[in-house]
Each structure stands twice: as C-alpha cells, then as structure tokens.
Amino acid sequence: MRKEPPGGEELAIAAPHCYCGRLARLQTSWTESNPLRRFFRGKSSCGFFVWVDIEMPRRERALMAWLLRTKREVEDQIVRARAREKKLWIALFMSWAFVFMLNGKLGR
C-alpha cells in the first residue's frame, strides 16, 4: 500500500507478484509519452509490467510533458550557473593572490 503526501490521493493497491514470484515494485514513469503515470514492474529478467493509472487525456499529457521538459531545462541551467559561479570565484581568488603578490614585490 502506498500513501501520497498530505492533501493527495491515497492509493490502496496491493502490489502484485511478478512472474518470478516476487512482489512487483511501484514506480513512476518520467517519459514524455506517459508523464507521472504509475506502474508495477518486476525484475528486468522476468519482464513483468502493468500500469496502475489510466492513461491521461492527450492535452493533459502534452501539458505534463512540457512541464517536465521545462523543469529539466531549468535544472540544467542551475547546474551550468553553479559551474560558472565556481569558475568566477576561482578567478577572483587568483586575481587577489596576484594583486597581493605584486603588492608585496612593489613594497620592497
């Protein structure tokens, strides 16, 4: 049984057994064709797969795919901005070190 965060729906579905006899795991699809759709999956070797949710209407699926794509793009921009920030901090530190070294040589 899986419980959603407060305010969400409760999903009370018993996990089925896969072809291997083990309990299948509840997972969420993050693909553009089935965004946020939940499914049960067994071990990759047994090939067990069954959808839990009904398929979203085409318009909602397209909107959800766009939102997920936009989220990934923003996350990528954040990663690039943090990398740039790190390089700028290094350049700033190096310039300060150069100024202090130069100041020490000129002060003699």
Automatic annotation (TrEMBL):
Domain GRF-type: 16-53
GO MF annotations, alphabetized: zinc ion binding
Stored Pfam families: Zn_ribbon_GRF
Transmembrane segments: 88-106
Keyword set, alphabetical order: Membrane, Metal-binding, Transmembrane, Transmembrane helix, Zinc, Zinc-finger
Residues spanning the signal sequence: none
Statement: the UniProt record of this protein carries the keyword Transmembrane: yes
Annotated PANTHER family: ZINC ION-BINDING PROTEIN
Protein name (database record): GRF-type domain-containing protein
